[in-house]
Specification:
The chain contains 9 helices and 10 strands. It folds into 2 domains: 23-163, Beta Barrel (Butyryl-CoA Dehydrogenase, subunit A, domain 2); 180-318, Butyryl-CoA Dehydrogenase, subunit A, domain 3. By secondary structure, the chain is of the alpha+beta class. 37% of the residues are buried. It is elongated. β2 (76-80) and β3 (83-90) form a beta hairpin. The strands form 3 sheets. A 4-stranded mixed beta sheet has the order 1-4-5-8. It has a 4-stranded antiparallel beta sheet with strand order 2-3-7-6, with no helix packed on it.
Length: 325
């Protein structure tokens, strides 16, 4: 309903602002897709556990040869009795090292065009033949390579119709681009920078009196309001029902994550060399947050579809320009 959509938005933003666990993949992505496309069996098995917060999910789309172009995935799923055998590899699967279930796309019809012939499955992360290799990132988090060797999954754990997985993945990515990249942490970092500018000094002079700093802060605050409005546009479009609004999701994700990166760069410039000190360093301004944020915000422009992918979606779906990949 409309009220539920607004409630979810407000709840997720406040949770993010205070550093609490957010709605996450279960409710925000997997649960909604199961409601729209899953069998009654999947709904009965997963939805109550998702609502109780009993299970964690990893999302498996990206592969070594299928990053920005998820439709190029090559993980093979071949029929084996009442189920499927999966062989291949996924990469950049965040949460795989602690998740309970894997939400994974695989190619079930290798002869079909690349945007067809893909099917979505759910399988336990402890399934025999599944091997997880952690990969540390520059953002102090762990992502993973996942290898499949004759991994069996029952057809009962197929999500939706055979060979229509890319349609469901596209819808899920629209949800991810909004749910996983909340506005509130950017707003909070802006507040921290503004407070720093109001109280800090450089060469004995108040930083707030520097005209270059004042202009840069004013520009960032204006851009922050643009990001806020783009998020509200996504919420408004979602309230109309039907599929998640693709263009609005891409516009928000593109602008918010690039703004987050610009804010991180500006914070280092304004705070000076001390902003390179890490968290828990006594002398670090803003509790050392700028250094980690500078590294982490780069990742946000990649996860859920790179900024270049978002521009392609906007060009094609909103402006009617031809596909270029």
């Amino acid at each position: 309903s409309e009220q539920e959509g607004v409630y979810e938005y407000l709840l997720n933003e406040r949770l993010a602002y205070h550093g609490a666990p957010q709605i996450g993949k279960g409710v925000g992505i997997v649960g909604k897709t199961i409601i729209r496309h899953g069998s009654e069996r999947l709904k009965k098995e997963f939805l109550p556990k998702i609502l109780r917060g009993e299970i964690q999910f990893a999302i498996g789309y990206s592969e070594p040869n299928a990053g920005s172009d998820a439709a190029a995935m090559e993980l093979r799923a071949t029929r084996d009795g009442d189920g499927w055998r999966l062989n291949g590899q996924k990469i950049f699967t965040t949460s795989a090292h602690f998740a309970d279930w894997y939400w994974v796309g695989a190619r079930t019809d290798p002869d079909a065009p690349k945007h067809h012939g893909i099917t979505l499955f759910l399988l336990p992360m402890d399934t025999p033949g599944l091997e997880i290799h952690p990969m540390p990132t520059i953002g102090d988090e762990i992502t993973n390579q996942v290898f499949f060797e004759d991994v069996y999954v029952s057809d009962e754990y197929r999500v939706g119709e055979l060979n229509k997985g890319f349609q469901y993945i596209s819808e899920a990515l629209d949800l991810e681009r909004f749910t996983m990249f909340t506005f509130s942490p950017i707003e909070q970092r802006m507040e921290e920078l503004l407070e720093y500018v109001k109280t800090a000094k450089r060469d004995g002079k108040p930083l707030r009196e520097d005209p270059i700093v004042r202009q840069r802060i004013a520009q960032l605050v204006t851009e922050l309001e643009v990001a806020r409005v783009l998020g509200l546009r996504f919420v408004a479009a979602s309230m109309k029902g039907g599929k998640p609004p693709t263009v609005e999701a891409s516009e928000y994700k593109l602008y918010a994550t690039e703004l987050s990166k610009r804010l991180a760069n500006a914070t280092l410039d304004i705070a000076g060399p001390g902003a390179q000190l890490r968290v828990h360093t006594k002398e670090a301004p803003m509790r050392g947050r700028p250094e980690r944020t500078y590294r982490y915000t780069v990742i946000d422009t990649i996860g859920g579809g790179t900024s270049e992918v978002q521009k392609n979606i906007i060009a094609r779906r909103k402006l009617g320009l031809p596909r270029n990949f």
